[in-house]
Amino acid sequence: MIALRFTLAAALAAFGVGTAGCSLAGNNNSLPRAANEPSAGLNFKAPRGHVTIAQFADLPEYQGYYGPTAIASGPHRSLWVTDTIDQDFGENAVVQIAKSGKALNTFYYSGITSEGADFMDIAAGPDGALWITDSYNGQILRMTTGGTFTGYGLSYLGPQGIVTGPDKALWFTALGDGSQSVIGRITTDFMLTQYAASGGVHGITVGPDKALWYTEETANAIGRITTKGKITELSKGISGGADPLWIAAGPDGALWFSEYKGGRIGRITTAGKVTEYSRGITPTEYPFGIAAGSDGAMWFTESESYNSGYSDAAKIGRITMSGKITEYSKGLSSNSDPTAIVQGPDHNMWFVESAGNQTGRASL
How far apart are CA 64 and CA 346, in angstroms? Predict the structure, then answer.
C-alpha cells in the first residue's frame, strides 16, 4: 500500500537513469552576480481579520485508501488535485475542485499496467493542460481538462516535483538508481532533455532570476539550474540534517523552502545567502509544502510524524518576510496530515490532507 506521508529520505527502489539521446551537464559552484533584492525585513500586512480553515471531503473514497498528494491552481479557475490509491483497491485520480470546495470532475487513471500509478506532483502547463509526475511508472503525464492522459516514459527514473519554466517547457526533478538524480526538461510536444544532478532532488520552482531552483533533500542543499542547463549547488548556511523538501519563490525576490527534518523554514537569496527560521514553529513539527500567499507572506503545512506512518498536530503556518511565524490549527483535523499547498484562484491558500483524504482552504 502507498505510504500517505512521504518518507523522502529513502530513494525510490530500482530506478536507473537512461541517458541515451539526452543532454547531461555537470555541477558548477559559482553564481552570477545577484541583482538588487528587496530587503528580507520588509513588513507586509497580516491577513484581514481571522484566518479561517475549512475542510472539504469531496474526493474519491475507498475505505481510507485514497490520499491526495499534490494540488495546483489551473485551468477554468479551478484547483486540480492528484489523488493516489493502492492499486489493489482502485485507480489514481485527478480531481477538479471549484472555489467552493466542491468536486466538479474526477478523472481516473489506471496506469500503464495493472500495477497502477503513484502521482507525486501536478502543474498547470503553458498549453492549457495539466502535467503530472508518476513516480511508480517513471513517466510524465499530460492530462487535458477533459481527462485524456498521454504519458512519456523516462527510462526508469522516478519523477518528483514539476513546474512550468520561463521557457514554456515543463521542468521536473527525478530520482534514479541509488544516489543518482536528474533535472529534466520536457516540451509540450514531448522533447526531453536531462541534466545530471545529485542529492536526492525533490521540489522545484521558478526563481526571480528566471532560473529553476530545486531542493536536494539528501545532500542538504539547494540547487539552481539555468534554462541552458548550468547547475549550481548551494549548501552553506543550511543546518545539518535539515532535509530541504519543497521550495517556492517569495514576494521579496528570494526563494523559500521547507526543512522537513530541521523543523525550520529557510530563505535563500539569488546570491546564495541562507537564513533559517524556527522561532514560532512547534519543535516537534515537520514543515512540508510551501507557497507564496496573496498577503505578501509565505504559507506552509506542518504536522508531527511517527515511525508508524501516522501523523498528528496538523497546522498551517505563515511566515512574513521578516521571519515572524504564526501557526493555525483551528478547523483542521489533527491527524489530517496537510502536505502540498498553493495559492488558489480566489487568492486563498489551498492544501491537501494526505491522511484525511480531503482538501483544505485557509481563507485570508
Answer: 29
Spell out the long-range contacts of 274-280 with Cβ–Cβ below 8 A and sequence spacing 24 or more. 274/222, 274/234, 274/236, 274/237, 274/238, 275/40, 275/237, 275/323, 276/237, 276/238, 276/239, 276/242, 277/319, 277/323, 277/325, 279/323, 279/325, 280/317, 280/319, 280/324, 280/325, 280/326, 280/327
Q: What is the pLDDT along the chain (364 residues), one digit of tens a residue?
A: 333 333 333 333 333 333 333 333 334 444 644 433 443 344 445 555 579 999 999 898 876 688 999 999 999 999 999 999 887 788 899 999 999 999 999 999 987 876 789 999 999 999 999 999 999 999 999 999 999 999 999 988 999 999 999 999 999 999 987 778 999 999 999 999 999 998 899 999 999 999 999 999 999 999 999 999 999 999 999 999 999 999 999 999 999 999 999 999 999 999 999 999 999 999 999 999 999 999 999 999 999 987 666 789 999 999 999 999 999 999 999 999 999 999 999 999 999 999 999 999 999 8
- Other beta carbons less than 10 A from residue 187's beta carbon: 14
pLDDT digits (tens, 9 = 90+) for 70-127: 999 999 999 999 999 887 788 899 999 999 999 999 999 987 876 789 999 999 999 9
Is there a contact between 199 and 217 (Cβ–Cβ < 8 Å)?
Answer: yes
Cell numbers found for residue 253: 525576490
Rounded Cα gap, residues 126 and 257, in angstroms: 25
Chain centroid, CA 84 distance in Å: 15
Q: Where are the domains of the chain?
A: 40-363
Which of 261, 211, 182 shows the shortest CA–CA distance to 12? 182
Angle value at C-alpha 320, between 293 and 281, nearest 5 degrees: 105
**Hey, CA dihedral for 151, 115, 217, 74, is it positive or negative?**
positive
Cα–Cα distance, 169 to 185 (Å, whole number):
7
Nine cell digits for residue 79: 484547483
Report d(CA 2, CA 293) in Å as an integer.
30
Residues 6+ apart with CB under 8 A from 130: 72, 74, 75, 80, 94, 122, 123, 124, 142, 143, 144, 145
Looking at the domain 40-363, which fold is it? Methylamine Dehydrogenase; Chain H (2.130.10)
